[in-house]
## 1
Amino acid sequence: MHVWLFDLAADALSLDRLRGVLSADERARAERFVFPHLRVSFAIAHGVLRILLSKYLEVAPERIGFSFNAQGKPSISNEDCRLRFNLSHSGSLGACAMALDCDLGVDVEQIRPMTDMFDIARRFFSPAEGADLEAVRLDQREIAFFNCWTRKEAYIKAIGGGLSIPLDSFQVSLLPDEPARLLSNREGDPDSWNIHAFDAGAGYRGAVAYNGARRELIVRRIDANEATKNWEVSEKLRDVSR
Ligand SMILES: CC(C)(COP(=O)(O)OP(=O)(O)OC[C@H]1O[C@@H](n2cnc3c(N)ncnc32)[C@H](O)[C@@H]1OP(=O)(O)O)[C@@H](O)C(=O)NCCC(=O)NCCS
């Protein structure tokens, strides 16, 4: 299970290159953002995603075709393709998760002061998660909240159901000293899902969820400018496989 993290920042030349690999639809979506910085973030996130996929698939980034399920989850349009991926972006951070043969979802969130934390928990978390959150020491509550949020998002993104899945219909672990886990779900098969929390850098929380056997998680950082240059996935992963 590979997770690539990148800042949503690029120099002018790299930004041009990243825009150059987008499809006409993606360019049109980027243009619809009112704020210029969101246009740039979108182009970088989707450009880096295409470049990463191109390294795994060994095809030109602009030639990759996507299909979308009814809730908008993208996948590679070639049905024989075993590579699965998911994208997340928050604040100035992007994340792409890649793996073979599993349903996967990734979520990164910028940690920000949440004055309405308990209102959100009451609306979106399960009662047990809400109770866990209230039991957490005050100085760890923000971390516990974003643990819960990212794990829940990663799980619904792995299923691909988006907001059609009631967020209070399943429970994740959130206590800062407990491992990331799906504790219960509607289907009654929480053990067939894995969740890893990962270090997404200062001020961010991250989680990836997927089904099947538990895998080793490798998290790498890549510079969006570097991504546009010539490199191979094996090079970037070499130092972790030694
Ligand atoms: C769309 C959704 C799948 C993720 O939204 P998000 O957390 O705002 O956004 P992220 O950056 O993590 O992910 C967005 C990317 O996921 C992918 N995606 C879109 N629909 C998806 C789906 N149904 N399943 C999985 N991935 C999806 C796309 O690549 C999308 O990128 P794009 O918008 O640039 O095209 C959906 O779960 C959502 O709107 N969630 C918000 C729910 C909420 O209010 N949660 C409260 C706390 S638990």
## 2
Amino acid sequence: MKTFLSIILALMLIGGLVWLTSDPKDSGTGSTTTQNNVSVVNGRQIVRITAKGGYWPRQTVAKANLPTTIKVTTNGSFDCSVALTIPALKHRSFLPATGETDIDLPEQKPGSIVQGLCAMGMYSFVISFN
Ligand SMILES: [Cu+2]
């Protein structure tokens, strides 16, 4: 746990430096609108979340009773949003600075809410299932 925290602190320091030099062209998948981040492919629901200085969109409404994959996209992300935890799943991962990470969710009941947090709890996103 101590190691985990020092990695996060290091990331935050690096992030501060990279912030000044990062190039602004990060369109692509990150630019999809909030209403557009849920799709169903071959019976599996895909929820797209972008992690960079927080999680976007912050709130997503998805369908219950469908196997779901959260697809987390990073693109030059050097802040602590890459240290992702999803308490309901006991999930904890370090996302790559740039890339896509799939996190599978079991089918959710209507009314279920899944929250993702950075390891320090300052950034979050919420997916509600109905
Ligand atoms: Cu954080």
